[in-house]
Amino acid sequence: MKFEIKNFGLYGTEQSTVSADFLNLVALDYSCRKYNWEIKPHFHGNLYQFFFIESGSGTLIINEKMKKFSGQNIIIMPENNLHGFKFSDDIKGYTLSVSSAIIDKITSHDKDLLYEISRVRLLNMNNNFDEFNDAMDSIRRMIKELNLQAEKEALFLETLLLLLLIKIFRMTIESEKEYIASTRELAYYKDFIKMIKRVVPTNKSIEDFTKDLGISKTHLNRVCQTITGESTKQVISNYLINEAMILMAHTDMTISEIAYQLEFKDVSYFCRFYKKQTGISPAKFREKNQHLEQNHHVVALNY
């Protein structure tokens, strides 16, 4: 049995589907001030977001885990990832929101580029001033083009966006050089993630994945540790937790129905698994999320 997951706007409020040509750039201090610098956990079904933080500090909340940042940072937030933010009131920077349709179109001939921007990333750029400033030059050029409304604007913006994504891609590759021993390891990891997304991994053993990959259990664990800093088992658990959070936050499914959807053998086991991973029960998470929704105002998508 499949359940429909609703689409949500930029701040987690229910909205209609993002248009295929949606592209929006806005200053962080302008967009976040009205929410007292705190954005509740939410997800976007068909929207990528890129946060270019020039100064200030904050906390990225991803799957109930918190990652602090300060100074110059770039945050990549692909579609279908539950996330929220707490910003300092002196935050400066920009949020670039782009429809999945545009991303798919401009990366159609480069799967490596699409893969790199389809992972949640927090890139600390405090020691990479030149690269960060180069990315900000692209952002400022896009803002100028949006304000001009000149001929062939869409094509020009897509070109600027592609160049910006390539710059970000190079930054992600550079940040991983000290961790990734070979391109083959990265290829194994990519294939592993594709397998997890293709099937509900709850009842699949790690050996099932390694057999399909053609490597040993120890090898796959080393690959996951190298690239993510976490074990194979934890990578799978993180995926299941993210899926469970999305279903609890943005559908009317019961906890039992969610456990069934994710193919847990019973609801009790699902609840124990969820609490072990996050520190709170599924019911407590849903109660907490509902309380947050009651205390936030609705905002239009094109704010």
CATH class of the largest domain equals Mainly Beta
State the strand order across the main sheet: 1-8-3-6-9
- Strand content range: 15-25%
Helix content: 40-55%
Mean pLDDT over the residues: 82
- Largest sheet at a glance? 5 strands, antiparallel
According to CATH, what is the topology of the largest domain?
A: Jelly Rolls
Low-confidence stretches are: 1-16, 294-303
- What is the ordering of alpha helices and beta strands? EHEEEEEEEHHEHHHHHHHHH
Q: What would your notes on this structure say?
A:
It is a single chain. With 303 residues, the chain is of the alpha+beta class. The protein has 2 domains: 23-178, Regulatory protein AraC (Jelly Rolls), CATH 2.60.120.280; 183-292, Orthogonal Bundle (Arc Repressor Mutant, subunit A). Helix content is 50%, strand content 17%. It has 12 helices and 9 strands. The chain has helices at 28-33, 100-106, 111-116, 129-148, 153-176, 183-198, 206-213, 217-228, 232-250, 255-261, 267-278, 282-294; strands at 23-27, 38-42, 47-55, 57-62, 65-70, 73-77, 83-87, 92-99, 121-124. Strands 1-8-3-6-9 form a 5-stranded antiparallel beta sheet. It has a 4-stranded antiparallel beta sheet with strand order 2-7-4-5. α4 packs antiparallel against α5 (153-176) and α6 (183-198) crosses α8. The longest helix is centred in the middle third of the chain and has 24 residues, at 153-176. The protein is globular. The relative contact order is 0.13.
